[in-house]
Each structure stands twice: as structure tokens, then as C-alpha cells.
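Not sure how to ask, but would you mind making up any protein sequence you like and the C-alpha cells describing how it folds?
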Amino acid sequence: MLKEQEDVTETMQRCFGSTKATAKVIFPERFNLPFSSLHEEIFKILDDDSIKQAVIAAPRGFGKTSLCTIAHPAKRILFGEKKFIVPISATATNAVTQGENLKRELLYNPVVKELFGPMKSESFSRDQWITASGTMVMPRGAGQQVRGNLFDKYRPDLIIADDLENSESVMSEEQRKKLKDWWFSDVCNSINRALDNWKIIVIGTVLHEDSLLINLLEDPAWHSVQLSICDDNYHSNWPDFMDDAAIMKLRDEHASRGQLDMFYREYRNIPVSTEDATFRPEYFQYYNEPDLVDDKNIENVIMIDPAKTVKLHSAQSAIVCVGIDRASAKMYVRDIVAEKLYPDELYTQAFEMAARMNAKVVGIEVTSLNEFITQPIKNEMSKRGQYFQLIELKARGKKEDRIAALVPFYRQGYMYHNKICCGGLEGQLLAFPRSRLADIMDALAYVVEMMELSERYFEPPEQDDPEDEFKELDYDEAVNDWRYV
């Protein structure tokens, strides 16, 4: 008996300090897969009380709703940590449904009953209810009044907004503005800022580049986490949920329907506007890399866009290889590296790509970093005995203008992507000019300057010699000895 009591005490102690432990111990049927490393970022937000307002953008199927509207508020209720919880959703119906799901777990979950006893009180309506531990739960839909509500002497101390926007309302500029005004004036002013016991959490999936979710992600006052089902090369971030093959299949299905932008929104949380996108999914064409291996008409060039700081490892650098076929007017994006790299790592990656792709021309952006970039690369060429035609690329004009210069190349069908490595590039292009990252597409944009500086232009299509056409014509023999009457 004593051993059983010790086990119960230890279990409750684990759950008290961890939403992750609560999820696995109390709700094992809901959370039957191992958590990924990305989930740890969500748990940190939920359990760290020093984080007062946080926004989490997570892909569909990631379990964010169950974690944030079931496991976490249940933990706060069971241990009496919060007195007034407000779940918020896009509609009142959705909010009440979420509240009912939480209520059902508290009432009928066998582990809850065993560890904490009955949770039902005399006040248990659908619109608002109070648990036996003394916590009020008041579901609200977007636009409903939150500010000014009191439970006894308590103002809301835990507000959880899940999928606050839907695909229809988010397309209206007027509706987006109305939601933002309500959120910041009503919801954010409903807590008691004189106390240190409140927390506001927003979770969702990116639906629009001007959505409330995106605005909060970009707001420095909010702790933000933006999660993706995979990396730029479609390698899964949660193989127990979807492996690489499943992700690529999902991506291809969206692409075949002309909905690649939807894949990036729903599963990678990259905002894309379908209203006036500069680059569209239908512009993207693909090729098979093995088909180019022995193609003698292709000249491979490499562009390097180093991080815009002397501390090169603190920001993203990009290296892009493009194969140019002037005879057929095609450009193939063949290889991409986009990482935070120390200078020596940047040189190594660039040289290895050049050797791998048999590139003889390397262009590198030089601005105020000229002395930090050009000389070390020349020195590295000499050291390795690996020589290229090195072209210094000047950052002329605005980055947005350089990238926009790629539009006619895509619209006219000149550009082809290696599907295996171009996920990050496509995500940035689709979100242009509001992409959170621009390193890959900025590096690619330098291919225009590279071609101009080296006077490389697409060649006109071959034309047959007109004399050959005349030779092929079949004439009757000439008529001789003409007589006139």
C-alpha cells in the first residue's frame, strides 16, 4: 500500500511540473505517439510561467489543439494553478465544443478520477462552468466580450486562443482588421496586469500573410514559435507521425492540384497570399537530376549570399548552383545550401558544391564584407588547388527589386527546379515580398547579374539554311527550244 502511495505521489509530482508528463500519464489515448523535438518548444511555452504571452504556429496534425486546449488547461485545473480560464476559438460554437471536450475528460477520465477524485460542481452549464477544484471555464468565440468579466475576485488568468481565424474570414481585409482590434482592445485588456499570474497563448496554422497569427509572430512583445512538418528538403521533423516519403507524397498531391501554396500554409506555416502573389505555384517546373549529369550544353554557376554581418554564423547564408543551358533557354536550380555557417564552413560548402557540380564560375555578393570574403576565398582556392572564375556581385538596388527580376524568367518557363532541394526556395518565392527569410531567393536572383557580367545570353533557336530547302524541292526538267507564235 505504501509503495502504491509513493508511486501515486511521484506520478503527481511529475505531472505538476510538466504538461508533457500530464499528457502521457493522464491522456495516453490522445497522445499515443512519441513527441518530437519540436514539441519541446511548445512544452517550454506552456510550462514556463515567465512567458506571459506566446504564439505557436504549428502544422496540421501536430497535436497542438489537444496539448493546448486539453492537456495543459487540465493540468492547471487539477492542480489548482488557475482560477479563470477562457478558451477562445473562431466561433462560439467551436469554443463551446472545445470546452465540452475538456469537461468530458475531467468528468470521465479514469486517471483523473483515481488521482484527483470527482471534478463536477453544481455549476456546469455549456456556456460556463466551475470545477470542483474551484476553476471557472468560460468559452468565447471571436468577437464576444471577454474584457470586464470577473469570477469572484478573479479576472481571466489563462486565455488560450485556438484557430482564431478560419479560411473564409481571413480573406477579408475588413474582417482581419476587426479581429485585430477586438483582440488587442478586448482580449489583451481582460487580464489583471497588476498581478503576475496571467498567461495568454495563441495557437494556430498560418492562413494568410496578414493574419492575426502572423502579426503576433512578428511582434517582438510576443514569444513566438513557428514549426514546420519538414525542413526545406522535405525531411520529416516528426517521422513517427509522417516520414519523408509520406511528406513528399503529400507535397506532390498538393502540387498536382495547383495548391502548393496551401501545402506551405497548412504544413510549413509559410504565409502565402493567393490574391496577388508575385511568384505562383504554377510557375514551378521540375526536372530529373540524373538527366543532366552528362549534358555538355549546361554550364554550372554558383552564387554565394553570405550572412549580412561580420559574425557570419549568426545569420543564414545561402549557396545556390544553377545550370544554364543557353541553347535551349533553360536554367536548372540544381543544388542549395542554406544554413547558419561560420566563414570556414561557408567556404567548404561552396568548394564542395563546385567540385560536385563541376562548376567553373563562382559569384559572391560583396558589400561591406568585401575584405572578409573575397581574399579568404582566393586564398582557399590557392590552398586547395581548385580554381574558379570568381565574380564579385554588387548588391545593386533593393533586395526586393533584385528578386523581382526573376519573375520574367519564371513566367516565360525558363526556370526548372530540382524538387529534392528546392523546398526552401519555393517557400520563400511564394511568400515574396513578405517572406520571413530571403537568403535563398536573393542568392538565386544574382544569376541575372552573373549572366550579364559574363555576357551570357540565351541563343536563338537553330534555323535551317534556306538553300537546303530549295535543294530538296523536286522540279520538272526545264523546257528548251521555245517557239513563239
About this structure: The longest helix spans residues 92-108. The radius of gyration is 30 Å. The chain has two domains: 2-227, 277-453.
